[in-house]
Design brief:
2 strands, 10 helices
Length: 262
């Protein structure tokens, strides 16, 4: 298993020992991915057990017990973990990026790619599964509060989790890679901050539903903000092009160095 999840650098013309150096370890990524999947599945099972039985009346004691308790736990927990991760990334930033060697920089590009793997998984999960579930819930059950069972999972758990990985990716790139530390990457900023703005857009969405009494259909103009902000995630393609261009240069630089030292 570990051999599959460990990528090694291969340099043409280098010795076998030089070509077998490990460049990235995906085992931590697999562990975090597994944790995320367990959390999402756990929340879905929780919805199946308690949504219709205890989540239809926000004024009932059972709603307070099963749903507002979940809300009070998940929000500070997820944002607390996010704050710890972001602060750690900033405190441990590389202050000597001008002296960064090619192999270390290449390894960090693979690490940043791992960050985006987790971010993309979290984003796609909420944009498809949880987003569809939320619309279905509101087409079936008339909302009586912003804190519906589907919202408590979608807007206050799933979205904060992908914000954690999105902002973490941005901080990692800006503190460990010269290309992103010395200049602003428009695609990188778009792919992180665009989808993150879906959370504050929730306020406008709820205001519209409360005062305009609109139907719960995807094509309603009230929902266009979610679609537009979600589409900014397509900018990830631009980020990957920037990655590939620089990583190609690094592979050539490492290969030239290895052949010289051989």
């Amino acid at each position: 298993m570990s051999s599959v999840l460990e990528s090694r650098i291969a340099v043409p013309g280098a010795s076998a020992a030089q070509s077998s150096r490990k460049i990235v370890n995906l085992i931590p990524v697999a562990i975090v991915w597994g944790v995320l999947l367990a959390v999402y599945m756990g929340l879905r099972i929780y919805q199946g057990l308690y949504a219709f039985e205890y989540g239809l009346d926000s004024t009932s004691p059972d709603f307070q017990k099963y749903w507002l308790t979940l809300l009070r736990v998940e929000v500070p927990l997820i944002f607390g973990v996010a704050a710890v991760v972001w602060i750690y990334l900033w405190v441990t930033r590389d202050k000597n990026l001008d002296k960064l060697d090619a192999e270390t920089e290449l390894r960090r590009y693979f690490h940043l790619t791992s960050w985006f793997l987790l971010y993309t998984f979290a984003f796609i999960f909420i944009a498809s599964f949880n987003g569809e579930a939320d619309a279905t819930w509101h087409q079936t059950v008339v909302r009586d509060t912003v804190f519906t069972p589907s919202h408590i999972v979608l807007f206050y758990a799933a979205i904060p989790m992908y914000i954690l990985f999105g902002v973490g990716s941005l901080i990692y790139a800006m503190t460990r890679l010269p290309k992103f530390a010395n200049s602003f990457s428009v695609p990188l900023i778009m792919v992180v901050l665009g989808p993150a703005l879906i959370l504050p857009n929730l306020g406008f969405n709820e205001w519209g539903h409360a005062f305009w009494l609109t139907e719960e259909i995807f094509t309603h103009p009230l929902h266009w903000g979610f679609v537009g902000l979600g589409w900014t995630g397509i900018a990830l393609g631009g980020v990957l092009l920037q990655f590939c261009a620089r990583m190609s240069e690094l592979f050539k630089e490492i290969g030239a160095t290895e052949r010289t030292n051989a």
